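USER:
I wish I could look at a protein chain and see how it folds. I am handing you a single protein, as its sequence and its fold in token form. As I understand it, each token names a local backbone shape. I hope you can help me see how the letters and the tokens relate. The protein I mean follows directly.
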Amino acid sequence: MDYRLRTATPADETWQLAIYASTRADELAMTGWPAAQCEAFVQQQHRAQQQHYARHFPRSVCQLILVGDDVAGRLWVDERGDRLHVLDIALLPAWRGQGLGTRCLQALAAEAEAGDRAIGIQVEIHNPARRLYERLGFLPEGEPQGLYQAMLRPTPQAEECLP
């Protein structure tokens, strides 16, 4: 499946919200909240995430993942000198499980390697995506912090030094 990345713009806000909402759907289904309350919660959390990323990662770039003309998800990356840090990678449900996320991360890994940089990501400890990251060479970085584990895909040179 071929894909391309396009920098998200303010005109993509509806897509951004839909992608974010899809990542919270299972969690919200367990709340028993009315649909309007779930929608208000997702909108508030989405705005908070956008503001947090803008404030704390001002050089980060959010890109939509496109398959043909269809929006499939987003990849949000912060460049940090010696590493690329994935703030978020999320696919809409219809695009999950088809290897698209793997291909996006493999392309990011190739970009990182070309610049002799590592890739970092933070993942919920019990998130099934952690297995994908491990298959792609990400290793735990330090101890878990609450529900999250920082992971790092080292540069090829650094991998040579690992036991």
Notes: The longest helix spans residues 35-56. The chain has one domain: 4-161. The mean pLDDT is 93. The first strand starts at residue 4 and ends at 7.
